[in-house]
């Protein structure tokens, strides 16, 4: 072999290439782990209403570990998503020393029973809020149905200047709605939107004019409805309210 100049040249070229590759790997490792490439700046984007700068600072100080090159983006994203109001976080590197974090907050539309909140995306999340939100209840997995029902009810009740303060879906898929004026609507599980539209029409034409407190309106009848008025006594009709 030592007399074979072609083989010697090939072997020397191989050794040179291997040495060069090892040097590049070692250099790359040094650059990636070098303290000369720290994350010096963090940029936070997003319409933040509930997540505070203090919360973000604490996460950054406790969870951001490594250099610009070695920082684990998935672990960083998960750390920010642990904050109660954060729905999603996107983390990106910006050369040469900046980390960009985009925060997408939950938008709460209701309270889920006695624990947690329901977002506009139909997602339950564990956070506190001082907002006046409707209370909703339903079987596990009905979150998106409840959010859709809230939106539909708000649209249908708007002409009567009423809003939903409580919404319940039973295990048998029957709907009950509590209104801002204290009236409960029993809607059942069939033609819910049609029944609510019928209530709005009758409310504006007749029920709002009655001089009695209405406890509930049962709309589960095919051709009518029942009204519960605790103050009403047969044969003792109270005078109508004077017209405004």
TrEMBL record:
Keywords: Cell cycle, Cell division, Cell inner membrane, Cell membrane, Membrane, Transmembrane, Transmembrane helix. It is a single-pass type II membrane protein. It is found in: Cell inner membrane; Membrane. InterPro entries: Cell_div_FtsQ/DivIB_C (IPR005548), FtsQ (IPR026579), FtsQ_C_sf (IPR045335), POTRA (IPR034746), POTRA_FtsQ_type (IPR013685). Pfam families: FtsQ_DivIB_C, POTRA_1. The keyword Membrane applies. GO terms for biological process: cell septum assembly; FtsZ-dependent cytokinesis. Residues 37-106 form the POTRA domain. Coiled coil: none annotated. The chain crosses the membrane at residues 12-32. Essential cell division protein. May link together the upstream cell division proteins, which are predominantly cytoplasmic, with the downstream cell division proteins, which are predominantly periplasmic. May control correct divisome assembly. Part of a complex composed of FtsB, FtsL and FtsQ. This is Cell division protein FtsQ. The gene is ftsQ.
């Amino acid at each position: 072999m030592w007399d074979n100049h072609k083989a010697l040249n090939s072997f020397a070229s191989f050794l040179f290439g291997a040495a060069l590759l090892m040097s590049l790997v070692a250099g790359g490792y040094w650059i990636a782990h070098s303290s000369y490439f720290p994350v010096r700046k963090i940029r936070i984007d997003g319409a933040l209403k509930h997540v505070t700068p203090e919360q973000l600072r604490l996460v950054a100080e406790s969870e951001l570990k490594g250099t610009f090159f070695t920082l684990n983006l998935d672990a960083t994203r998960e750390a920010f998503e642990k904050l109660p109001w954060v729905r999603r976080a996107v983390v990106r590197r910006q050369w040469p020393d900046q980390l960009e974090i985009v925060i997408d907050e939950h938008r709460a539309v209701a309270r889920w029973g006695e624990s947690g909140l329901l977002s506009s995306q139909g997602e339950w999340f564990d956070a506190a809020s001082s907002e006046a939100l409707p209370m909703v209840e339903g079987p596990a997995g009905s979150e998106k149905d409840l959010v859709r029902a809230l939106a539909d009810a708000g649209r249908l009740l708007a002409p009567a200047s009423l809003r939903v303060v409580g919404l319940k879906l039973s295990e048998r898929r029957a709907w009950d709605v509590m209104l801002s004026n204290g009236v409960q609507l029993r809607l059942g599980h069939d033609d819910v939107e049609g029944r609510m539209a019928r209530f709005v029409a009758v409310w504006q034409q007749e029920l709002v004019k009655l001089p009695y407190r209405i406890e509930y309106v049962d709309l589960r009848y095919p051709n009518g409805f029942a009204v519960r008025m605790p103050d009403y006594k047969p044969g003792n009709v109270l005078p109508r309210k004077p017209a405004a």
